[in-house]
Amino acid sequence: MAAKTGIYVPVTAIAAMLIFAASAFSQNAATSTGSAYTTSPQAAGLAPVSSPPVQIPIGVLFQKTGGSLLRAETYNQGDPLPMTAGNASFYNVPEPKPKLLRKHDLVTIIIRENSQYTANGTTDLKHANDLDAIIDSYVMLGWQGGGPSLNEHAPTTPIEMKTSGQRDFKGTATVERDDTFTGRITAEVIDVKPNGTLILEATENIKNDQEEQRVTLIGTCRVEDITSDNGVLSNQLFNLSLSKVHKGAAKDTLTRGIFTRLLDWINPF
Predict the structure, then answer these.
(1) Would 2 be classed as within a structural domain?
(2) CB-based contacts of 61: which residues, under 8 Å, 6+ apart?
(3) Domain coverage including residue 146
(4) Cβ-contact 89, 23 below 8 angstroms
(5) Looking at the domain assignment, is residue 188 inside a domain?
(6) Structurally, how many domains does the chain consist of?
(7) Same domain, 62 and 167
(8) Which pLDDT band, with edges at 50, 70 and 90, does 91 fall under?
(9) Is residue 226 domain-resident?
(10) What is the average per-residue pLDDT within 207-235?
(11) CA within 13 Å, CB half, 45
(12) Which of 52, 162, 173, 193 could form a disulfide with 197 if both were Cys (CB 3.0 to 4.6 A apart)?
């Protein structure tokens, strides 16, 4: 008679595997939806810890429970903790608490700004005028009868006036500009709004010999947009104000002179 063979898996092993799977799933879900930073002390685990409840002496509990030592020992015990992956699995890794961001903390801003501008314009103006006039009589001021008088005078040859004028203006303009600004700058949290949004401000001055560069940035961002490495993209900032100013010999070479700018402003032709 052939003996039956098989593989038997203990029920405890199956339960442990299910708990481990639930722990991994909950950990991945928390990692994918959690935020690395927060403005709430409670979410960061920095809220004040309440004092533990006052324990009643065992003798008093022994009298309250009618002389039962078992009831006296279990009198102060609350409801048991629910079965979760955090308190049932040895492999569970607790979810890290988000870091607290406060006023005057520093945040790194990754600047990636691209802008393109193209404009075409054509102007063609023509203006012409003609004047042809003949004066065959006119009034002259004279003196007659002891006082001034106006007398009509008709010249032998009529006076003829002819004028002609023409003005043409034609202009064509084409502007193409492509700007790219990339870099990293550290900003300070100058204010935290009641809804948790952050006001960031950054200033950077770089001077190399005669060349000087000044970068100023101001913007508002959500705390959820700040990554775990304490960085945020510039295109995620609301009401962004980004200024980059150069000073030095290279800037002076590309700048038009005062006389040239004055002529362009007057524009006599």
Answers:
(1) no
(2) 71, 72, 73, 75, 76
(3) 125-173
(4) yes
(5) yes
(6) 3
(7) no
(8) confident
(9) yes
(10) 90
(11) 6
(12) 193
